[in-house]
From TrEMBL:
SMART domains: CPDc. Residues 24-59, 342-361 are annotated as: Disordered. This is Mitochondrial import inner membrane translocase subunit TIM50. It is a single-pass membrane protein. Essential component of the TIM23 complex, a complex that mediates the translocation of transit peptide-containing proteins across the mitochondrial inner membrane. The keyword Protein transport applies. InterPro entries: FCP1_dom (IPR004274), HAD-like_sf (IPR036412), HAD_sf (IPR023214), TIM50 (IPR050365). Its main location: mitochondrion. Belongs to the TIM50 family.
């Protein structure tokens, strides 16, 4: 009996331990079949249909032709502008008028006869359209360029062909002395403390008063007359200067206001242009007499030094002053004139001392 009870206890212990092992295995290794099945179901589902196109996509598709047209128009205008700019730079207006003359005349010669057939009339109309459009474009270009050049010419060319009136008959033989203003008769400069300052060159009064007896004196400046007139009223209270010419009388070219002495209505053989920049700002440098630039020096005597030379020219007028000025090229005229005068006096003195004898011993 005891042996039977012992066997029943061992059997109960073995069965309990087996249940524990089975329950731990199931907890630690759960079955994978349900998850695999879920994944399979998820993969077997069909994808949802794409959403319908939005209104923004539809408007973008409609904007494509308009953007193409816009950029095409911009490209055409850019090309036309570049072509017109090149033609304007490379050819003068007369050259363009000559090159387009045949095209413009061909437009006027196109006629459609009344008895022509419909096909011939259609062909003639197509041909005339192909000719008329370029011809009208050429005419419009020429008209616009002519108007623009006339406006530009008003700023770049002197305001008149004759800047001065005719000489009085009593002054037919008088020489014309043209004076620059800046660095010749005065010096203007600007400072932050005082603004614009104008300093009169030493000797201006004596220079103008003395030479007004011999010359027709003219001031020719590249400043506006709004500046020149009030300055000359103070600089020349005795009105020794007969005429004043400002910026409007100059020729603007390559960034420089040139004095065109040929527009003065005076004999070029009798014009002297006295300036510190006579070679740079005159279209007739052969008429120029260069004076030392004035930079507000207190001991400047350049104007007074020029008086003997100018007075000698007026008292002994040469046939052409340009030849006289050319002989002084590369020299300071006042100093060279004094040297030549002394040399001439020395030679005359030697001729007097060693003159021909009327008899011999």
């Amino acid at each position: 009996m005891s042996s039977t009870l012992l066997r029943s206890r061992l059997a109960s212990l073995v069965s309990k331990r087996g249940r524990r092992l089975l329950s731990s295995d199931v907890a630690s290794n759960p079955p994978k079949d349900p998850f695999v099945a879920a994944e399979t179901l998820a993969s077997n589902r069909t994808a949802p249909p794409p959403p319908p196109p939005s209104a923004a996509a539809a408007s973008a598709s409609t904007r494509k032709p308009w953007s193409f047209l816009k950029y095409s128009l911009i490209g055409a205008l850019t090309g036309a502008t570049a072509s017109v700019a090149y033609v304007s730079y490379a050819y003068s207006m007369d050259e363009i008028a000559e090159k387009t003359k045949a095209l413009r005349e061909a437009r006027a010669s196109i006629e459609i006869p009344d008895d022509a057939s419909t096909l011939d009339k259609f062909k003639t109309m197509l041909y005339s359209s192909a000719i008329i459009v370029p011809a009208k474009a050429a005419e419009a270009y020429l008209d616009a360029r002519r108007a623009i050049e006339e406006q530009v010419r008003g700023y770049t060319e002197p305001y008149a062909e004759k800047l001065l009136p005719d000489l009085h008959p009593m002054d037919r033989n008088a020489y014309t002395l043209v004076l620059d203003l800046q660095e010749t008769l005065l010096y203007s400069y600007w400072t932050r403390e005082k603004g614009w300052q104008t300093i009169k060159r030493p000797g201006v009064d004596a220079f103008l008063e003395h030479l007004a007896q011999f010359y027709e004196i003219i001031v020719f400046s590249d400043y506006s007359n709004m500046y020149v007139d009030p300055v000359m009223e103070r600089l020349d209270p005795k009105h020794c200067v007969r005429f004043r010419l400002g910026k409007a009388a100059t020729k603007y070219q390559d960034g420089v206001h040139y004095r065109d002495l040929s527009k003065l209505n005076r004999d070029p053989r009798k014009i002297i242009y006295l300036s510190a920049h006579a070679r740079e700002n005159s279209l007739q440098p052969e008429n120029g007499a260069v004076i030392k630039p004035y930079k507000s020096e207190l001991d400047d005597t350049a104007l007074v030094d020029f008086i003997p030379f100018l007075e000698f020219v007026a008292r002994n007028p040469p046939a052409d002053i340009r030849q006289v000025l050319a002989s002084y090229e590369g020299h300071e005229i006042p100093a060279e004139f004094i040297r030549r005068t002394k040399e001439h006096q020395r030679k005359m003195q030697e001729q007097k001392q060693h003159g021909p004898r009327l008899w011999r011993r």
